[in-house]
Amino acid sequence: MKTAFPAIAALLALTSACTRHDTAPDRQPMPGARDASPRCSIAGVDGKRLWTDVPAQADNCEMQRFVLNNFLYLAHDDSDGNPRFMSMAPWYDAIPQDGSAPRWRDGFKPLSTRALRKTSREGQPGDSFELIDSAHRRVGYDVRVNEVFVDYLTRSRTYRADVLSAAEAAFQRDPSSGGVWLPSGSEKMPGVISIKTSWRSYPAGKSCPAAKMHCERDAHGHWWGLIGLHLVQKTPTLGEMTWATFEHVANAPDCSPGGSAPIAPAPADPLHPGKTLPEWHLFDWTSYRAQGGDGARCAVPDGAYQYTVAADGQTLQNQTCGTPSATPLCNIDPRLASVNGVQVDSDANTRFHRINVCRTVAQPRCSGSGAEGEQVACLNQALADDFPAALADKWRYYALIGSVYMAGHAPGVGCFRYDDGPMLTTQPPRSRFPSTCAGSTTAPQRARAGDLRLANTSMETWMQDGTCMVATPGATPLMGRDCFACHAPATNEPGWPFGMGDMSFLFDRIPVSGTTQ
Fold first, then answer.
1. Each residue of 206-258: pLDDT tens digit?
2. Which end of the chain, N or C, is more open, meaning fewer C-beta atoms within 10 Å of its C-beta?
3. What CA–CA distance (Å, rounded) separates 260 from 331?
4. CA dihedral defined by 279, 285, 288, 292, rounded to 10 degrees?
5. DSSP-derived secondary structure for 313-344
6. For residue range 435-461, what is the model confidence (pLDDT) as tens digits?
């Protein structure tokens, strides 16, 4: 039952950052000067300052430079010797599960053993599958937000289910202003920032390789190694927020030859040419070869998306996937007990099996041509050649995979329309994942730009481009899609089908009817 909330209009006043966030010397808008060379330049990308916005007419190179710089800033140690992102508020502080008000605690907050192991809340999107690493241990996930986000929740009271329900009703009435719209910040003050990270666990007796990856002890003293990071940041220009992702270089090889991480027994060590790292985090060469891998390619479930349209011309029926082009060996359903007739490795986890993971969209090598498709690769290479001296060498083992955004960008307040996913043969034809803005025909129309096939192998393993896999018969199959297919500019009350406010799923963690997440 939805309830009215008389003060819902006051939410709009909260979209500017709270005044108690003082202007700091380590925050500034992104420098607007462009490098004249044909290559996307790394000049100025050093992580010394958090960039609070991009130039109004930023091109793809500038967008990628923006997220790379801010990743370096958040990875940099604070005054206590911990990465800055580890001082952000864990989701259970931002939305306490006992219904109390959000709390901000200054300083380092360790990983939570309980949260990392609760797959129902800290798992992969769209499928609820567990990802088992090459050592047969489950990958864990952590979500954190900055103080601006926590302040918004506190002042707007949108950490409460009844308030979010009222905001959802306001959005339905007028998606141009009603609902949740998070702070965008200003030239000298950041807007909301959200970080999602993926972690590989290291059991007692096996040390986390701290020289070559970032390692953290959780509250119980267990070691975890960082293998992936999503960076989401709202700015005055980027009403749609940044949607960027980073990975450890040893996560997974490319599915096909031609990229920068070919299939091999072990990943190359980027700091020591000709040498390799001990192992892949999510790929096991021995099992891959035993299952029939040829040493160069790893086929994935790539059958075509199939469906029929009901008599109403809109409702989709009989959704499924066609026959793959080859027997899949990588990125397969983790519930399967065998691959290509070969029994999978015995796992302690009884619900899901360890699978071999590969990257379907390989990052190209940087040729220096200046082509937009190479810009991320060239930024990574340039950063490796001129790495900031203030950052520990372990951060050299992480790479920008890319970012996706809106061409022309979106308003900081109010819904905007766009199409995402395959176009369907309905009447009239429509996108599989459109932003409908509650049926508005006047909301701004935007088009996606940047890396439209963006996915992180440790967080969207089964939603990489070129994939089609049935997770639940009759439901939409798991398919390649980018962030905007699920994160939409809308406000949904908790549990319908997930709580959301202004692109963020953090609101899905709001306790409903006394339950905890």
1. 889 999 999 999 888 889 999 999 999 999 999 999 999 999 999 999 999 99
2. N
3. 19
4. 170
5. SS-EEEEEE---SS---BS--TT-SEETTEEP
6. 999 999 999 999 999 999 999 999 999
- Separation CA 327–CA 337 (nearest Å): 15
Q: Scanning the structure block, which residue is given the tokens 């002042």?
A: 155
- Contacting residues for 111 by C-beta, under 8 A, at least 6 apart: 140, 142, 199, 216, 217, 218, 219, 224
Q: What is the 3-state secondary structure (H, E, C) of 266-304?
A: CCECCCCCCCECCCCCCCCHHHHHHCCCCCCCCCCCCCC
Instruction: Supply φ then ψ for residue 145, to 5 degrees.
Output: -135, 160
| Reported confidence tier of residue 22, pLDDT bands at 50, 70, 90 | very low
For residue 445, what are the CA distances in angstroms to 241, 324, 407, 418, 437?
16, 35, 10, 6, 10
Which token pair is 511?
Answer: 């306790």
Alpha carbons 131 and 331: distance in angstroms, whole number: 10
Q: Is the dihedral of CA 167, 172, 174, 175 positive or negative?
A: positive
Token couple for 372: 């937009």
Q: CA-CA distance, 78 to 84, in Å (whole number)?
A: 5
- Residue 359, token pair as written in the block: 């990257």
Q: Would you list the domain boundaries of the chain?
A: 6-509
Q: 187 phi and psi, to 5 degrees? A: -60, -35
